[in-house]
Structures are given as structure tokens and as C-alpha cells.
Amino acid sequence: MQGIRKSLFSLLLLVLIITLTLSACGSKDSAGGSGESSEKVLNVFNWSDYFSDSVIKKFEEETGIKVNYSTFSSNEEMYAKLSTGNSNYDVTVVTTNFIELLIKEGLVEKINKDNIPNLQHIGEEFSGNYADPNDEYSVPYLWGFYPIAVNEEITDKKVEGIKDLFDPSFENNLAIMDDPRPVIGSALQALGYSPNTTNEEEIKEAGELLQELKPNIKAVDTESKNFLMSKEAKAVITYSGDAYIAKRENPNIKVIFPKEGILTWQEGLVIPKNAPHKENAEKFIDFINRPEIMKELLLEYPYGTSNVEAAKLLPEEVRKETQFVEEFKQGELLKDVGEATQMYDRVWTEFRQ
Which PANTHER family does the protein's record reference (predicted)? Predict the structure, then answer.
């Protein structure tokens, strides 16, 4: 009898060990790095002015997924967080040249397109750019350019390009965005060079041109549009969406495509490597690309959209201030410049001193 009890106890102990082992494995699969978590959570990492509160709330109500929203102020800050390879973020918005860099360094996951049927609304002209030719790692999102915006109410100077901003009438009256590549890129275009040059002498020359502009610069700020809206600056170099937000507040603000060349940007939605809730991220990307949801975002944030069906839903006045498709095609996107990044960084550091 004692032997039977002992055998029965051993059998129960074995069953318990197997059960606990399987349970542990299951927990690892559901909450670990596989991205197939059953947890109703989504960790978003984004610019501050890209997803409206109302859209986030609709997603949460429809799916039951809680969105944790964190922001960054520059691509460099975003890259520093994602470069750890274990950032705990599930989805982020990345500018094209940094998409290229993240793919090269293996810091983003391939996207399961079967989970994103609303990809059908993305226009061909916005798909398959140089950074991700087959759109394997990113979903085209918003796009725009880096314009000059001028308050014609407080300046008589006719502005057509970057070189016009060197005029003495702009002394201590110019605000520019705190973003090295487009600022240096604009200087390079003003000199007749490519904004993606890796030529050391050309980059150095662009830095010297920016130094010449310093007496006119009142502020270097990510929210440079605020200086224009408050009339603290007569003109700004900024992001197209910010320029049109300012114009909505003050019709005297004119948005200008610089005559030296159109410097464009495009951004995509990506899923960082080891995202803990990959399927939730794909649900979110699909949700964002519903034409009626994208329309809601664009009414608040006036950027170009890669979602052509959403563009059709926009009021005419909003289409006029956002959907510059032909100019976008003519423009030049910023690219990853590899080791030349160090030269750009050096020029920017010297400029900011």
C-alpha cells in the first residue's frame, strides 16, 4: 500500500512539473518577444502632432486595446531609443532616411500585410521608395516638404527662396526648425548641391552659409511655427504641416516652395524589433489607414497623405493645403548618408554653438 501511494505521489508530481513547464512556455510565447501577446496594450512612439486624441480613443473603444503614447522631438532621439533593439515600443512613425537606417541595422520587424487589408488604399506613387522598395518593413504614412513661411503682414520683402532670408530686414527675425538634415539640406540646395551629398567640401560650405545666416536667426526650435504665429519672427523654415497650421491661424502667412529646390520628406509606420505586441500594432496600422479615420487625422494635421482614398474625402480647401502630389514627385527625399552623417553632425554642432 505504501508503495502504491509512493508511486501515485511520484506520478502526480510528474504531472505537476509538466503542467508548470507548459504553462511557463505558454506565458513566454504570449507575453515575450514573439509579438503575439494576448495583452490588450499598444505602446506607440511618435511625434507629438500626428495622432489625434479622438482617433486614439476610437481605436481603444473598438478594440479594447489600451494605447500608451510616448513622443519624441527628433529622428535622432527616436533612433537612439530604437537602437537598443529592445525599446518595448510596438509602433512608431519614422522619416524615410531613418527607415533606411533602421532596416540596415535590423531594428524593425517585417510587417504581415495580411493583417492590414487597408493597404489597398495606399497610392502607388507613395509606395516602394528607395528605403523600403517592397514595403516589407514600413507602411507609407504622411508626407510633405520643408517650406519657407512668411508673415506678409509684418514684412515687405518678397521671398522666393532660401537666399532671400539673408536680407538685413530679417535680422533677428527668422526662426528655423531644430532638425539638422533638412536645415543643412536647404543650405546645400541654396548652393546648388544635393541635400544628400557626401562631399566634405560641399557640406562644409553649407555650414559656412548657415553661419552667415546667424545674425538673422532669432530661434532654432522644433516648434518654429510658434514664433511666426506670435509675430516674434517674420519668417520660418519649418515643416509643411506646421506652416499650414500657422496659415489657418493667420491668412497673412504665405507658404513658399523655395525656388532653389523642393526638399521633401515621407514617413512610414514601422514596428520596432522585438515589439511585445506586434499583432496589436498591425491592427492599429490597419485602423489608421481606414479612409475615414485618415481623413479625421488630416483635418487636424494638414499633411500630405499616402492614402489616396482618404485624400478624396477631404474638403477642397484642405486638399489645396496638403496634397501637393506633383511637387512631391519633383522634390528630393532625404537619404541616409552613411559615414557622412558625422560631417553633418559636426556642421550642426558648430552652427548651434
Answer: SPERMIDINE/PUTRESCINE-BINDING PERIPLASMIC PROTEIN, SPERMIDINE_PUTRESCINE-BINDING PERIPLASMIC PROTEIN
Residue 9 placed within a domain: no
269 and 219 in a common domain: no
pLDDT in tens, the chain (353 residues): 444 444 444 444 444 444 444 344 433 333 334 455 679 999 999 987 788 899 999 999 999 999 999 999 888 899 999 998 888 999 999 999 999 999 999 999 999 999 999 999 999 999 999 999 999 999 999 999 999 999 999 999 999 999 999 999 999 999 999 999 999 999 999 999 999 999 999 999 999 999 999 999 999 998 899 999 999 999 999 999 899 989 989 999 999 999 999 999 999 999 999 999 999 999 999 999 999 999 999 998 889 999 999 999 999 988 888 888 888 888 999 999 999 999 999 999 999 98
Q: What's the CATH code of the domain at 310?
A: 3.40.190.10
Dihedral pair phi/psi, residue 56, rounded to 5°: -60, -45
53 close to 301: Cβ distance less than 8 angstroms: no
What pTM was computed for the model? 0.81
Number of structural domains found in the chain: 2
Residue 161 placed within a domain: yes
Residue 219 has what DSSP assignment? E
Any long-range contacts for 312-319 (C-beta under 8 Å, 24+ apart)?
none
The helix (H) or strand (E) run that includes residue 199 is: none
Is the same domain home to 276 and 247? no
Residue 124 shares a structural domain with residue 149: no
Which domain, by its residues, includes 203?
Answer: 145-263+336-352
